[in-house]
Amino acid sequence: MHRLLSAVFNSSQLVRLVGLVLLAAMIMLRLWDPAPLEVLRLKTFDTFQRIKPNDNPARPVVIVDIDEESLAAKGQWPWPRTLIAEMMDNMRQAGAVAVGLDIIFAEEDRTSPALILESAVGVDDQMRQQLLAMPSNDTVLAQAMGRGIVVVGQSGYHRALERQDSFDVPSPPLATLGGDPKPFLLHYPDLLHNIEELQTAANGGGALTSNSDADGITRRVPLAIVARDRIYATLSVELLRVAAGNRPLIIRTNDAGIEEINVAGLSIPTDESARAWVRFSESDPARYVSAAGVLDGEAQALARLNGKIVLVGTSALGLFDIKATPLDPVMPGVEVHAQLIENILTKQHLVRPNFAIAAELLAAFLVGLFIIVVVPFLPAIYTLLSGVVVNAGIIGGSYWLFADRSFLIDPTFPLLTSAVVFGALVFYSYIREESQRREIRSAFRQYLSPDVVEQLASDPSKLKLGGETKEMTILFSDVRGFTSISEEYKDYPEALTELINRLLTPLSEAVVRHGGTIDKYMGDNIMAFWNAPLDDEAHASRALSAALEMLATLETLNAQIVTETTPDGNPTQPFAIGVGLNTGVNVVGNMGSDLRFDYTVLGDNVNVASRLEGQTKSYGVGILVGERTAALASDQFILIEVDLVRVKGKAEPERVFTVLGKSEPNDGGGFDRLANAFAAMLEHYRNQDWDEAEKQLRVARKADGGGQISGLLNVYQGRIASFREAPPPKGWDGVFTAATK
Q1: Residues 6+ apart with CB under 8 A from 458
Q2: What is the 3-state secondary structure (H, E, C) of 363-399?
Q3: Which of 4, 156, 261, 513 is most buried (CB neighbours < 10 A)?
Q4: Cβ(622)–Cβ(633) under 8 Å?
Q5: Structure pTM?
Q6: What is the mean pLDDT of residues 44-48?
Q7: Which of 110-124, 244-258, 475-489, 578-592 has the lowest mean pLDDT?
Q8: CB neighbours of 199 closer than 8 A, spacing ≥ 6?
């Protein structure tokens, strides 16, 4: 079971599959769009409105407010309709352009003279006749309405009403573009309207319906509804239509639903159900005039009505016309209509464009795909930075579209999708890492090299326990003349240990920096290898880079050491090292016994690397490289063939090389000139053309201005001189046989 779980959690394909499944699930969730997701989206739009509310100073609408002060001054509601008639006349005389009533007079006024008479006791005939001769309060109000431009309120009702006085309420003249809008509009079985006398006296009737969203907040107002199978405009739209001369209402539809409504030559973008988003501003007392002031004929109150569209409504809490909006939890419903009219007249519309859902789904898909494909390969800091950048871009872009274009594009769904997918991948990775680390530590609990364990823990998918055969690059380094150095410290072993640690630490760091694994230390000797336990295609080049850095590090260390003295007061001698590199097929894995074992490498190519290190002193170079290593790294380094040498213990000769440095296009060609001259010298040497060989040797010395291979040139200078005196035997193949390791 443990192995099965490890295999499951180590599968990179599975983690992507899990991410894709979650991404698909989130897309399906958005298409379903449950209430919590919708509320989250709407709350975000509310936040945008609170950050940047509508700040247009234009106030084309004035609200005549039946407020608490008016009720206290004129009596409790409902007022006699003669009082309303008086207020209507005062508003008309004050210059109101048109009046909209956010009130429904669904029943006759019970304070009318004839209705009072029915319940009165002890009224004489003369008084009865006088009362019956008086017009009803509704008639007085109807006459007052007829003297101006008035739109009464009405409302869609959720069930059929049983009313004896019900009549056919006229709907506004309508033109449609793109098809029948009825299937897309909000439908109501019946219409709650005014009594016929008032309804017919008015210039039009506007629906007061303003359904709130799932969280009880009013953000959108339907501009048209269907009631009794007829289309009626909302109060705001009908008031503008009537004020503009009873022009027809134009509804444009497309395949997705209602696209826009045109009233009085003004286009209003809507959602598919003909609901318009209100671009709210802060509730402004300057919009309100007290109804008591209008009734009392206060000059200041009446002056504010001149040239304005007037809405009559109430802010009194007891009359229950209070709405919660994104900016105000207790905004009077009449102000919602007022702000909608202001939006229409100033063309400051909030728009939820038709492409909004597609854009949100695309953003969520791209962000989720980025997380699935790219994030698993990023370091933690880059993951954090990319997350911050992407999320900030989504939020900032959405807010910019709101503030600059008045578009409502939801940032929360892409952010939620990224959080879900990323959280799942993090959880999956956590479980996988835990499983892999347990496996690694279990496999290597008896190993003595914690560095190897940590390297494998960083990429455990490449872990292969047990022995395996693979091509590897092996490195040996050794301090030259270590015996004489030890003799100087024979009475000070602790000082010698400190000195060797000072040497081995930077050399080891050079190996590790270039991806090598340190196999073991043997006194002053370092053995390291590349391409195990982790695969490394550039193992030869990395090993050569490490060797060059080891020599460079040694120069820095020697510059410090030569300024110091030994415990006996003698000058400290600088270190010199030789490095041998060889590439070939070896066996790597668990080596040892039941009591003690180690992760190491064995093979003939390991022995060759050790022998090459031993020959560096003989050839006067710091690095000797086997033929396979040179072939793999020749595109990145300038290498020269040193010799064909038969190392001790080997019957077949080895072609060995040394490295001059990395291939640099701007080194002036110095390395190339030296390499070419040395190659020409070596060719003449093997052809026993000693004169030409010496000639090319001089060219090589001149090219070797820094004396990098002066020791090697001296070796061949000596060999040529020896062969002049004692020529090689007939059939000589140019191979040098090493007498020592």
Answers
A1: none
A2: HHHHHHHHHHHCHHHCCHHHHHHHHHHHHHHHHHHHH
A3: 261
A4: no
A5: 0.59
A6: 91
A7: 110-124
A8: 152, 154, 167, 169, 193, 205
